[in-house]
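Anyone up for a design puzzle?
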């Protein structure tokens, strides 16, 4: 079991009701496993904001980091987690 710290930014704070929480991950100790646990905890609204129904992966405008490294540059949802790792869910910001 891995204990990780989860941080939420932007509109995800409203869905989760918190900025940060500690999560114990049983089973698959990956970003995907953490995401599954969070979907079980926060339900469909959380899932719909994070998961693209077409691809089944994270939406393009959601950035997920592990220890401040974007999972798109790691192993995506298969990125392994260790005890004490920090996962952040950030909305992408664009503009000019």
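Challenge accepted. My sequence:
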């Amino acid at each position: 079991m891995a204990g990780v710290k989860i941080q939420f930014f932007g509109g995800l704070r409203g869905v989760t009701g918190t900025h940060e929480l500690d999560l114990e991950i049983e089973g698959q100790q990956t970003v995907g496993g953490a995401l599954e646990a969070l979907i079980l905890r926060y339900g469909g609204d959380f899932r719909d904001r994070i998961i693209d129904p077409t691809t089944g992966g994270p939406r393009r405008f959601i950035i997920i980091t592990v220890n401040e490294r974007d999972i798109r540059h790691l192993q995506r949802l298969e990125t392994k987690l260790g005890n004490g790792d920090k996962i952040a869910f950030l909305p992408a910001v664009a503009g000019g």
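A detail worth pointing out: The chain has a mean pLDDT of 93.
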